[in-house]
TrEMBL record:
The chain crosses the membrane at residues 12-39, 45-66, 78-100, 112-129, 150-173, 179-199, 225-245, 265-287, 294-311, 317-334, 354-382, 402-426. Residues 1-432 form the Major facilitator superfamily (MFS) profile domain. Residues 444-500 are annotated as: Disordered. It comes from Agrococcus pavilionensis RW1. SUPFAM superfamilies: MFS general substrate transporter. This is Major facilitator superfamily (MFS) profile domain-containing protein. Keywords: Cell membrane, Membrane, Transmembrane, Transmembrane helix. The keyword Membrane applies. CDD domains: MFS_MefA_like. Residues 444-457 have a biased composition (Low complexity). The keyword Transmembrane applies. PANTHER family: INTEGRAL MEMBRANE EFFLUX PROTEIN-RELATED, MAJOR FACILITATOR SUPERFAMILY ASSOCIATED DOMAIN-CONTAINING PROTEIN. It is found in: Cell membrane.
Length: 500
């Protein structure tokens, strides 16, 4: 954080953050391990492709449901629910592995394989509900001026989990096998759940709008919350478009790397380059995003586009590795900027659905591009680039080499990113979201003192020596409520009335 002195809310947030990091690492660990295990034992690209596609689709479709659950329940309770479902699912998978022969589980024509994969899938996907809840705890527990720093820490632990997971999953499958891998995942999930039971969040109170009675997938409520803030829908659309371009890198980054390195060396290079994710997250945690996160977001996207266009301009291994590292450094800034904006301009009672809505759009974007660009590159761009005519046409701009076709795709995608971000700065939506962000800023201490002096008559016992109620005042870690619409808070310990 920007200051060495942390509030009690920030200390609680760090506990929640570390707990979520362990839970995310565990679910990703088993999910990656399942993919490795299935491919190594069956050599079926179809099976691994279906598993990966199903994961992304469930994340996209489940995110809005998860957001509704987060808004209608205490955040700590949501995290406990997520951890419990994951523990039950992984335990069920472990029982199946113990009771059924491995040959039966790996029979793609039998239902047991698909049931086993679905159970692990459910346990991994439901973890996204905890990530949505984590984003809302930033609003509850961290002062507004340090939201960006907290979101930078979120990016750091996500980057660490990303790097560690890919390494540990491969080691676990290679050295221990699937059985012990499941056992490790069960144990770590239980540890995370036990630690979560020791946490208390006094600010964790559910407050819903008077007309907010939706259950299940509240698409209408999500849209209403997004459209209520000028420019917010455009921000989500821009982030989705950015992920569409990012799908180019998802589809072609590994093939390009494998043209330059052996498979073993590429794994090492990518792992080292991915440390940029941690460095970028720590930089945001230390320095923040500036006074205009939306401006920072667009500048970062332009730089990312320039990097994506140039890091394959020549077939030099150091240029590619260094470009990936710098690209990874910028990802946490882009993600933290979007989260910081939403945390300020959207009322806490609607944040879960807005985060879920954004996650649904953005999670579906990159796979769509990957599915589209991979066939185009395979059957048209790469054959042309490798032909004598194509290589001669590309040589003045992209040099020579076996991967100039992929470099051409990266170049075009990067230029599109830069142009789109630059044009976005000229739009009405950019001005609207900037104005909404500034207008939603909480008053500083001087403004609060002036307002109190004007509102409380002289001689009123509240004017001198008054003690503010818990959770109220400039030092409160809870977010200042900016939504003036009628709201209700439940009478049974802060929970919204109605069935759970």
């Amino acid at each position: 954080m920007t200051s060495m002195t942390r509030t009690q809310g920030e200390r609680t947030f760090l506990h929640v953050l570390i707990n979520t990091a362990l839970a995310n690492l565990t679910t990703s660990f088993l999910w990656f391990a399942l993919t490795f295990w299935v491919y190594l034992e069956t050599r079926s690209v179809l099976a691994t492709g279906i598993i990966g596609g199903a994961y992304m689709l469930l994340v996209a479709f489940g995110s809005m449901l998860f957001g509704t659950i987060v808004d209608h329940n205490r955040k700590l309770r949501v995290m406990l629910l997520s951890g419990t479902v994951t523990l039950v699912a992984f335990s069920a998978a472990g029982v199946m592995y113990l009771l059924l022969p491995e040959r039966t589980l790996l029979d793609l024509g039998a239902p047991w394989f698909w049931l086993f994969g679905t159970i692990v899938l459910v346990g991994a996907v439901v973890e996204q509900m905890r990530n949505i809840a984590l984003s809302t705890t930033v609003t509850m527990l961290v002062p507004d001026e340090r939201h960006a720093n907290a979101n930078g820490l979120v990016g750091t632990v996500q980057g660490l989990a990303f790097i560690v997971t890919s390494v540990l999953s491969g080691l676990a499958i290679g050295r221990l096998g699937m059985g012990w891998t499941i056992a490790i995942a069960i144990a770590l999930t239980a540890v995370s759940l036990a630690h979560l039971l020791t946490l208390r969040i006094p600010q964790d109170v559910v407050e819903l709008d008077a007309d907010d009675t939706a259950r299940g997938v509240d698409l209408r409520g999500s849209l209403r919350a997004v459209l209520a803030t000028g420019g917010l829908f455009a921000l989500i659309l821009f982030s989705t478009f950015n992920n569409l371009i990012g799908g180019l890198y998802m589809a072609l980054m590994d093939p390009y790397g494998l043209e330059l390195f052996t498979v073993e060396m590429w794994g090492v290079v990518f792992g080292v380059a991915s440390t940029g994710f941690i460095v970028g997250g720590l930089a945001i945690a230390r320095f923040g995003l500036g006074k205009r996160p939306i401006r920072t977001l667009l500048i970062v996207v332009m730089v990312m586009g320039a990097l994506g266009a140039l890091f394959t301009i020549r077939e030099w291994w150091w240029l590619y590795a260094g470009g990936i590292w710098l690209y990874m450094c910028l990802i946490p800034a882009a993600e933290a900027a979007e989260q910081t904006i939403i945390q300020r301009v959207v009322p806490l009672s609607r944040q879960g659905r807005v985060f879920g809505f954004a996650m649904a759009f953005e999670a579906a974007a990159a796979p769509v591009t990957a599915f589209l660009i991979a066939p185009l590159a395979e059957f048209w761009i790469l054959p042309w680039a490798r032909s004598s005519e194509g290589s001669a046409a590309l040589e003045p701009l992209l040099g020579t080499g076996v991967a100039r076709g992929i470099a051409l795709v990266f170049l075009i995608g990067g230029v599109v990113m830069v142009v789109a971000a630059a044009l976005a700065m000229l739009t009405k939506s950019y001005r609207q979201i900037s104005a909404s962000y500034d207008a939603a800023a909480p008053p500083d201490d001087a403004q609060l003192d002036d307002a109190s002096a004007a509102a409380v008559p002289t001689g009123d016992p509240r004017a001198v020596g008054a003690v503010p109620a818990e959770g109220v005042g400039p030092d409160a870690s809870a977010r200042t409520e900016r939504d003036q619409s009628p709201s209700r808070s439940s009478s049974d310990g802060g929970r919204a009335p109605g069935p759970r």
